[in-house]
Amino acid sequence: VALTPALVRQFYPTLLLLVRLAAVHPYRRSAQEPVLDLTTGLEPLFRDFVSKLAFLCCTVPGGSAVAACAILQLPEGVQYVFGFNNQTSSELEYKRCEITRILNMLRSPLPAADSEKAALHRQILTAALTFSEIRIKAYLRSLGTQLQLCVQACEREDTTEAHVIKRALLALIQNLEPLSIDAVLNLIESIGQLFKSDTFVLVGPRLAREENLMSARHWSDCIHAAGRLLSYRRTVDVMLLVASTWPQLFDEFQICMIPSSLGISDALRGPPLTAEQIVRKTTSDQGLLGRLSEQLQQLSTHDLDGDIREIWSHAPKPIVHAEILVHHWLENTRGGIRPERFFNRWKFIGSSKPPCKLCSYFFGEYPTDVQVRPSHQNVYFPWRMPNVYEHQGNDAALTRMRVMGRIKTRICADIARILSERLSDGRPHDSSAYATLAPCRMPGTDGGPPAETATGLSLSSLRISEREVVTAFH
């Protein structure tokens, strides 16, 4: 069942304007990622694990490999269900084989001796790094470039603090060559030590200064790349903790790879509209239209109309994003989204990156209680809702139309807010990669060491949580 031409004409030009407005305005201060909190039970650990699995399957840079995952309860064992933004059948089969191999490493019984635990950790981490070789190399290239820029910044600053930081950065640079698995493992260990050191605290004001001045981003980009590499170690930490908590997740399991959606053509039909023409589609309030038109005129130096014309002629085809793809598959297969279908009745879809703005809007407007991660609020043009087929009945088509209409209303509100505040949502990096020194929260603790007896688990591996590092210094 095709979308009505009228809805397409209303939705996608409005989305395109929001994308361009977000691109030419500075970001708000980034909201922090929630700290892993086990004081409310073990569901946060499970959710973290599901998203970490999706993260492992996002093996190349860019949006095509963004992954989502849900874990379902079967009569005998569990089923891991994965969806991706845009992967071929051969890519899906390769990922299925690799993630199966990694999950099999965690079959019970787990080793008891510390030396054997360390060996297993290294084995799994090596497999994860090999699986994501292309992405790892991209992080290493970025890290090398940004480390050099940070060293140069320290030399220009020429203070005692700067010299201390410079020595730590040069030590990391030495671990970048020669490139090998052992070198990457050593680099990740060095990054982990740096992030927990007093030297790293000195980096905080430099990160804050970059954010406040909205200037060069070498400090934040450096920490981002380093944090992404460290995320692989933390992923293995979480997997081992989960294996000791729920060994049944690794004993008998199936892997389901959902085929990616196809992009739709002609999302932008007819001749290109101007920003002014698109704004006039957002509201019938003449007073508001007048204010929006004035605010648009103040952006004349950005040539929004030229950008819109350029994108209009070769815009990427909208696709179903991974989180929505998994949800759609669940809805339309036996058992639907009933609680008993999910492991421990936890209705959650994890993802390799936080959901985009439109996916967040979808889960807020669609009639579902399945949960996803908090959004990073970045917005992308190639986004669409899943197909509706005639056998699903008229209600499914009406639901899609209503949800898209509500999302379009929220997009219009975003456009008005950005024009008024001159600040965009989102953040420069759409992945949550920064590491802070904040510990995870444990039952029975008040800022002290984790009370391991409260859960019977060893949580030493979770002392580094993933959120915006800059928030640790405010």
Average pLDDT rating: 87
Radius of gyration equals: 24 Å
Helix content: 40-55%
Report the major sheet. Answer: 4 strands, mixed
Order of helices and strands: HHEEHHHHHHHHEHHHHEHH
Number of helices: 16
Unreliable segments of 5+ consecutive residues? 433-474
The shape, in one word, is: globular
Task: Report the end-to-end length measured between terminal Cα atoms.
Answer: 51 Å
Question: How many extended strands?
Answer: 4
| Content of β-strand | under 5%
Tell me the strand order in the biggest sheet. 3-2-1-4
Structural class: mainly alpha
InterPro entries: OTT_1508_deam-like (IPR027796)
Pfam families: OTT_1508_deam
Keywords: Signal
Signal peptide: 1-26
How would you characterize this protein structure?
There is one protein chain. This protein is mainly alpha-helical and 474 residues long. It has a domain at 111-245. Helix content is 52%, strand content 4%. It is built from 16 helices and four strands. The protein has a four-stranded mixed beta sheet with strand order 3-2-1-4. The radius of gyration is 24 Å and the shape is globular. Residues 1-26 form the signal peptide.
Question: Topology of this protein?
Answer:
Blueprint: H1 5-24, H2 43-57, E1 67-73, E2 78-84, H3 89-104, H4 114-131, H5 133-157, H6 160-174, H7 181-195, H8 198-213, H9 218-245, H10 248-251, E3 253-257, H11 275-279, H12 286-297, H13 304-313, H14 322-331, E4 350-351, H15 357-365, H16 394-421
Parallel strand pairs: 2-3
Antiparallel strand pairs: 1-2, 1-4
